[in-house]
Design goal:
There is one protein chain. The chain has one domain: NAD(P)-binding Rossmann-like Domain (Rossmann fold, 3-Layer(aba) Sandwich), CATH 3.40.50.720. Helix content is 46%, strand content 15%. The chain is built from eight helices and seven strands; from the N terminus they run E-H-E-E-H-E-H-E-H-E-H-H-H-E-H. Helix 1 packs across helix 7, helix 2 packs parallel to helix 3 and helix 3 runs parallel beside helix 4.
């Protein structure tokens, strides 16, 4: 039975992906900053571990506790929205610490065992905003685009060890707390000079149309892990697929 470690499993895409792999007879190491045993169904094949991707000691403790792994999914991250002019640099750094440096640090911690065993898959979950520019998310987009870039280079570095690396790019999803979290984190949204733009962007976010469901992401991650012929970039969700085709 194979084992996968997934970061950011307390809700949204990470939670659904953990359930998806559990249902398909994988051992799942579900990690989150504050472990919640009730977040996932009880299973003898499930372990819930604490992991803060911005803390190197936390990362190494979790990876050591997880034991041998066959796949890693870097899903932990958060979104924030505001005009670049009004975005505090502290928030920009926090986005990169979690979304970018966190994914790099967890990958670094897991790669040695993959390299030594000459087997393993790394899947990084980023965003379809890296395919189509959207106002108010310059910092968030940059943090995710950086993951896209290092992922594609990493794939070239580790293919000699039979280690595969893939990207999953979700679209907008009503099943995550992105919009609410973005509003709560960004007081700069209230800047009067950008009021009309903010109003129009958030109105479009709530409009009917193609969206991404959490299961779309779980299915894309499953494909990335299990299908060696899968492409480097796998859009997840009807809107993400549409953006990928038009980009």
């Amino acid at each position: 039975m194979k084992t996968i470690l997934i970061t950011g499993c307390s809700s949204g895409f990470g939670l659904e992906t953990a359930k998806y792999f559990l249902d398909r007879n994988w051992k799942v190491v579900a990690t989150m900053r504050t472990p919640r045993e009730d977040a996932l169904p009880r299973s003898e094949h499930l372990r819930v571990l604490a992991l803060d991707v911005t803390d190197l000691e936390s990362i190494h403790q979790a990876v050591e506790a997880a034991g041998p792994l066959d796949a890693l999914v870097n899903n932990a991250g958060f979104g924030a929205a505001s005009p670049l002019e009004t975005t505090p640099m502290a928030m920009v750094r926090q986005l990169f610490e979690t979304n970018t440096f966190g994914a790099m640090a967890v990958t670094q911690a897991v790669l040695p065992q993959f390299r030594q065993r000459k087997a393993g898959v790394v899947v990084n979950v980023t965003s379809s905003v890296t395919l189509k520019s959207i106002p108010l998310v310059a910092s968030y987009t940059a943090s995710k685009a950086a993951v896209n870039a290092f992922t594609e280079v990493l794939a070239l570095e580790v293919e000699q060890f039979n280690v595969r690396v893939r990207l999953v790019l979700p679209g907008r999803s009503p099943e995550t707390r992105f919009a609410d979290n973005a509003r709560s984190r960004m007081p700069g949204l209230d800047h009067e000079a950008y009021a009309d733009l903010v109003k129009s962007v958030f109105a479009r976010f709530g409009e009917p149309g193609p969206i991404t469901h959490a299961q779309d992401v779980a299915e894309a991650v499953w494909r990335a892990v299990n299908d060696p012929s899968s492409p480097m970039r796998i859009p997840a969700g009807a809107d993400a697929v549409s953006w990928a085709e038009s980009s």
